[in-house]
C-alpha cells in the first residue's frame, strides 16, 4: 500500500457529522470519504475525467506549465 501523509484536521462538528453520514451511506470511513471528496474536487479543478481524458489541461486560475525549453506552453 502506498504511504500516505498523516496530518491533523480541525473541522466544524456539524460538517464532520455530514461527512460521517456521507461516509456511512457509501460504506467508507470518514477519512476515506474526505480523501474521496478531496480527490474528486482536485480532479474537477484540473479538468480530469474518470475516463482518463482531460477536459482542460489546467484550471483557469493556474498558469500553463513551462515547456522543456523554458517557454510557457500554449
From TrEMBL:
<dbReference type="InterPro" id="IPR013321">
    <property type="entry name" value="Arc_rbn_hlx_hlx"/>
</dbReference>
<feature type="region of interest" description="Disordered">
    <location>
        <begin position="48"/>
        <end position="74"/>
    </location>
</feature>
<dbReference type="GO" id="GO:0006355">
    <property type="term" value="P:regulation of DNA-templated transcription"/>
</dbReference>
<dbReference type="InterPro" id="IPR012869">
    <property type="entry name" value="RHH_5"/>
</dbReference>
<dbReference type="Pfam" id="PF07878">
    <property type="entry name" value="RHH_5"/>
</dbReference>
<dbReference type="InterPro" id="IPR010985">
    <property type="entry name" value="Ribbon_hlx_hlx"/>
</dbReference>
<feature type="domain" description="CopG-like ribbon-helix-helix">
    <location>
        <begin position="14"/>
        <end position="45"/>
    </location>
</feature>
<protein>
    <recommendedName>
        <fullName>CopG-like ribbon-helix-helix domain-containing protein</fullName>
    </recommendedName>
</protein>
Amino acid at each position: 500500500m502506498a504511504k500516505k501523509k498523516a496530518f491533523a484536521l480541525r473541522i466544524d462538528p456539524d460538517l464532520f457529522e455530514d461527512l460521517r453520514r456521507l461516509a456511512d451511506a457509501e460504506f467508507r470511513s470518514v477519512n476515506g470519504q474526505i480523501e474521496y471528496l478531496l480527490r474528486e474536487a482536485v480532479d474537477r479543478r484540473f479538468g480530469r475525467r474518470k475516463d482518463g481524458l482531460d477536459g482542460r489541461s489546467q484550471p483557469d486560475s493556474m498558469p500553463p506549465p513551462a515547456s522543456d525549453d523554458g517557454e510557457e506552453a500554449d
